[in-house]
Predict the structure of Citrate lyase subunit beta/citryl-CoA lyase.
Amino acid sequence: MRHERPRHEPIAARSWLFVPGDSESKMVKAVKSEADIVLLDLEDAVAPEGKAVARTTVAEFLHRNPEHRERLWVRINPFDGPHTLYDLASVMPARPGGIMLPKVYGPADVQRLDHSLSALEVANGIEEGSTRVIVLITETAEAMARTQDYKGAPRVVALTWGAEDLADAIGASTNTNADGSYAFTFELARSLTLLGAASAGVTPIDTISADFRDLDALQQRAQATRKAGFRGMLAIHPAQVPIINAAFSPTEAEVAEAQVIVDLFAANPGVGAIGWKGGMLDRPHLARAQRLLRQAGLG
């Protein structure tokens, strides 16, 4: 009789730091950072001729750092190339905390990953279904039409998006406007990712800020995307991590206000709306306050 596989909750992780899988020194530095998740990258950060060596480097690094394994995830290569199964066969015996799947064409790629992971988990004495997954869901034109289809996708705890590969996929020469903001198609990708994550009941993670030197711009963007509903952000440099962590952490003032709202409704059971600060609070305000307290670890 087949045992029941573990059920995964949406992941609470603010900063997801990419680090090249072929650089031992950069991986060491990344682990010492405050990043909630360190993404050991076997895809874009590694040249094709270096991928075999990078797999071994990542697997050995995982083996040497078991105390950090929960936050050490691996971005594998996509299924539309020759490297994916080699990546998985190399890193899964070292039990990474999770897998990032890039350049999907739709949920079928997640199902394919699930089957591969299940076989490798069983072969390596890992609980079947325990390896979590984050999916990059906007890097191909086909995937843009499937962003709402990840509800119930096995293992998936978060969805994120990418602008660079999408630009290549659609033949765009740039993904930004003259003022540096994302062009319409790429803002659409961001919005569809947020809506897709909400539909699937998983964590929405915003994409990278490519200019890692402009920390002021990063702070403004991170704060804006958190207000929009994202719960974390990808990073490409350790200097970005503290900015992201701070932006996606509720402030003391926000926590205090949320607690007041929750307490008001608790003191008035059965009431649909309550007057407060010259306006009205209703049930959506309560739900948002409760969610914020949970994010702060108080709910």
